[in-house]
Amino acid sequence: MYEVSSGSREVESLRQVGPAGSVIRERAAGRAAAPSFTLLGEVRGRLGGRELELGSPQRRLVLAVLLLHEGGPVELDDLVDAVWGEHPPGHAIQGIRSHIANLRRALEPERAARQPAGLLISVGRAYALRLPPGSVDATLARTLVERARRSEHAGDPAAAREQLAAALALWRGSPLAGLPGPFAERHRERLAELRLAAQERRLALELAIGPAEPLLPEIAALSAEHPLREGLRGLHLTALHRAGRRAEALAVYARTRSELVAELGVEPGADLTRLHRELLRDEPPPAETAAPVVPAQLPADLVDFTGHGEVVTQLAARLRRPDPHGVPTVVVSGMGGVGKSSLAIHVAHRVRGHFPDGQLYADLRGASAAPAPADVVLGGFLRGLGVPEGELPAAVQDRAALLRSLLATRRVLVVLDDARDVDQVRPLLPGSTGTAVLITSRTALSELSGAHPLRLPVLPREDALRLLAKIVGPERVETQLAAAHRAVEGCGFLPLAVRIVGARLAARPGWSVARISDRLADQRSRLALLHVGELTVARAFQLGYDQLNSAQARAFRLLARIGIPEIPLPVCAAVLDCTPERAEEICEALVDLSLLDTPQPDRYRFHDLIRLFALEQPEPEGAAAVPRALDHYVATLNRLHGVFQSSAVRDCLLPATATGSPIADNEAGQAWLDLERANLIALLRAAADAGVVRVAADIAWALVSLSDLGTNPGETLRALEAVLRVAESHGDRPAQARLLAAAGGLQTVGLGQFLAAVPRLRRARTLAEAEGNGRLRAWAEVYLTLVDWHLAPAAELPDRVSAAVASFDGTGAPWADGILRVAAAQAYLATGAHEPARQQAEAALLLAADAGFREIEAFAMQEVGAALSEAGDHARALEYCTAALRQARRHGPRLQQGWALTPLARANLNAGNLEAAEAQAAEAVRILTGCADMFNRGRALVVHGRALAALHRTDEAAAVFLRACRFYTRIRRPDTVNQLRELLLTEFGMPPGTDFSGTLTRRQPSTNEH
Question: At 598, which helix (H) or strand (E)?
Fold first, then answer.
């Protein structure tokens, strides 16, 4: 309870207000005492009957900020702003923390040193002061004023008068007296306005209930103190008239009019004008003041509203929570059809009980060609608040001022639906803290100071399914669940689209859900399907599209045509043929209008349905979009291969006219590749659709050459095959050769489809020879040789390796000779022939060093080290393998680092460095499992298993060896599978019934699948 001196009349008045008294009554006996605070005067606190030592004015200001947030968290930065404003000192944060520590000691003096605070708690980087109800006088005053409003609406003006009197009795002077800074000044003004509004309403009730003469001194004094407050002047006129002092009343009106004209340049408002007319006619004033009209303008809530549960809860809490900084205002933005209006109306109905003085609602038609004028909206609000038609001011600014005056002492929720921009909204906003405002708009209205932004996403999948089930019936969805999933996916989880599909199905009980989901799968007709009656998705998008200027509309159409999931800013600039700065300006405007989304800085994406809508709009430059994007990516891939020093591919790329994105170093290159891999795959599909194959072939060639295709190389292969089919239909032989070589390489290294790769690699070799492309011919030859070695029986492998190395023709492609010799070293090591392996690896190392092939140099060093390790020269082995890893980290993609870690782990294992071997092998397995690698992952698994076994971590070793066994089964290496199976059975005691072949989590095509 708020403590006051014993015997004071305020205590007695508070005890007489009936239900309101329970708000501030002493807590039940036996419960621990809590501090109480005054803000309506000097900032003071009491605990257990004694005054609290609150320290300096600055510390009291920190306390006041926390108290005014009524238990809500206050960010550390907000406390700094409140105390020091825009120019805090360097020690500001430390200063706040010191004040918090001292306040905690003052509030809980009995708390032990390391015991957590129970009142002033930490919430992340914020602080909250959690107190029982009735602990702060400012909160009590606001509560009593709100109860007075409810009493008045309930027809009990006497109770309302007493509650207002009790609230006013809590003031002890100027609020926050002695506190410095703009924060304190702003809240002094707010609390002073609360007091003045309560005084005005109490006097109006007194005047309605009792005689006028005793009230005149108080009314006259207050009116003189606030001469421009028309409500008080109106009370003064009424009291004088009712007391029979008509001449004085006319003189007060004349003086008031002169002051308003002189000070503000406006005539008296409608209420004063009406009172003046009554004085002139000498009509008796009304015997009592009618209770204010309570507007209820909200549209009906949707009975099937579904989803966004957390958002609804968050919005409701924010609208209910008093905002000490001003009017609680929330702006819900989002694309057309996402359900902004439905959400706002639903939330408004949920919180309307918190706003007993009513709810105002207006459809601002901001997305239409004719937005609602402010004077019309204000007229509707004022009529809803009981202003007669003849007393409505003509000018917009006068209507806005009257609205603010009428809402000054009321708790009203204002819902502004479909706002166009800030200029449309500003005249409609209340100025008092008792109200709250909920705005929906396609734009974020970021210029609206103090508003909390919330961008509404599409529905989560499960909520979209629930919405569909509410419309068509749960049984229909449950019995056709897979088709229902496809249907809501086809709707892009957009609520409007789901409603349209649901309405079509509900009107056609004979249709299966599969019928409409199959039709939605066809992108060409999807938007046409999404309409029923007056509901249409395309129309919702058209309203936003019509707001674009010519540059924005051009960008909207062009960017949709490249078909990639996330569009980086440099690609936007390339496609729009402008500077990155101009591209960012345009794209951010599209984001503001909810036609683009920005999942992270400098990256943009379309909703699927909005992209389809954009594709339906004619664009003269449309055919240039995909080639511009391809050219940018080829230029960037060229830069990437330069950083990775991958000369084997860089020399084969076509020259690009674009500059591409800068790649600073190896780490930046890998990050770019990880981020752009999905875009590159999607761009290959877009190139196939657009019939642009020559540059797309370079994209495919460069991407596959990195052998770093993520965890789903099958998706890359399907996109590549789409481009290949177009190249074949066009008869473009150079493009076919590159695409066939890329597809064969991907099937070999990434998918383990060795037999399926052979005809493509042979065809690529034939086309390359015919075109005179020696580099490409050598590439295909190397991969054909690798497949041959992989499929060869172990007994034949050494002879095949010797013959292939001797006969290989690397003319014009020395890097191919180097790669083949590294592979030969690996093959020899697999058969235990470490001396020939060392010789081949050293030959590759010499060739790579002379030619500057850094990636081949790293490969060769690791294989020299592996051969030395098997020969027992551990020191030199570790030296070579460590140098190889260092080179891979400096110049290679992540996958190459996994390749280098495996022989290093093997060398440490052979040298007896078991802990290092286990850690390096585990890291190699992690990297190679996350990439598309069908050659080296098995080696890493075996080394990891050996290291774990040597460390006597038997169960872990058995699990890793079983993974290796299943991996080698998948890539058709029966000799290795048999060795691993025997090891698991004899050394690890694995039961004979164990599934040694197993299945991977994601099935990939086998080696015989074409």
Answer: strand 597-600
